[in-house]
């Protein structure tokens, strides 16, 4: 695989990750009614296909990002193999934590279908447990975003230090990664304040990721400079 092919694969999968993640959020978020377990359960059962579609979109997003992590490691390893590998580790760890949160997201479907073994619980209890599972997912997912943020910072540094990609894209991505980390820690440390940062910081991070992803798809890398930097690292 040529570096140009690897770069375009990384960019294409990055955009697939962003789009599918946004689809999952747009479909799933309206179904959850804050602090109303009965209404949330009714929404999920009434629109179960949408709930499942949102889960599938999130799963596609995670699988796509695994591909991004692999291909971006290959593209950036001429800059620093060790730092690129460290970034890949943080990316895969983030995907693993995200996977755990998606499993939790699927729990309401098991609880609300009223299978025989669940008759020991009342309907209200099952609805409350379903909403608690969704709230737990909202607490687990930001943990994964911390790992994603650190990976974006490391990728941004490598892009800025490379000779075959625009330095400004690396700077912007590092800022976006810092936004992920700050917003996630704010969510942990100040639950009443943290969510108010999300509408301001998440768009910055998404624009940063999207910009680099678009460049990789359209322009790829300067192959001559990539080969020169790769030969210097050997």
Q: What is the terminal separation in angstroms?
A: 18 Å
Global geometry = elongated
> Main β-sheet: number of strands, strand sense, barrel status?
none
Mean pLDDT: 89
* Percent of sequence in beta strands: under 5%
From the alpha carbons, calculate the radius of gyration and give it in angstroms.
Answer: 20 Å
What is the helix/strand order? HHHHHHHH
Helix content: over 70%
Protein structure class = mainly alpha
DSSP strand tally: 0
> Multimeric state of these chains?
single chain
Number of helices: 8
Number of domains: 1
- Unreliably modeled segments: none
Question: Can you give a write-up of this model?
Answer:
- There is one protein chain.
- By secondary structure, this protein is mostly helical.
- It has one domain (about 5-230).
- About 85% of the residues lie in helices and about 0% in strands.
- The protein has helices spanning about 5-30, 35-45, 50-75, 80-110, 125-160, 165-190, 195-220, 225-234.
- The protein starts with a helix and ends with a helix.
Overview features:
mainly alpha, 8 helices, about 85% helix
SSE layout and pairing:
Layout lengths: L2 H26 L8 H10 L1 H29 L4 H32 L10 H39 L5 H23 L4 H25 L4 H11 L1
């Amino acid at each position: 695989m040529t570096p140009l092919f690897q770069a375009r694969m990384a960019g294409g999968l990055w955009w697939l990750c962003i789009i599918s993640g946004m689809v999952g959020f747009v479909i799933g978020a309206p179904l959850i009614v804050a602090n109303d377990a009965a209404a949330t359960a009714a929404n999920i059962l009434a629109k179960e296909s949408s709930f499942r579609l949102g889960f599938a979109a999130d799963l596609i997003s995670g699988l796509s990002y695994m591909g991004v992590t692999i291909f971006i490691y290959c593209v950036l390893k001429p800059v620093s193999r060790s730092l690129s590998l460290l970034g890949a580790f943080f990316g895969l760890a983030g995907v693993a934590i995200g996977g755990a949160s998606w499993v939790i997201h699927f729990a309401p479907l098991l609880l609300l279908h009223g299978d025989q073994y669940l008759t020991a619980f009342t309907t209200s209890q099952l609805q409350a447990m379903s909403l608690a599972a969704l709230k737990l997912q909202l607490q687990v997912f930001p943990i994964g975003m911390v790992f994603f943020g650190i990976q974006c910072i490391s990728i941004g540094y490598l892009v800025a230090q490379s000779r075959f990609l625009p330095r400004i894209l690396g700077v912007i991505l590092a800022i976006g990664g810092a936004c992920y980390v700050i917003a996630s820690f704010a969510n942990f440390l100040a639950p009443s304040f943290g969510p108010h940062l999300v509408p301001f910081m998440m768009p910055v991070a998404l624009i940063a990721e999207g910009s680099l992803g678009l460049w990789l798809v359209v322009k790829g890398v300067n192959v001559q400079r990539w080969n020169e930097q790769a030969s210097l690292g050997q």
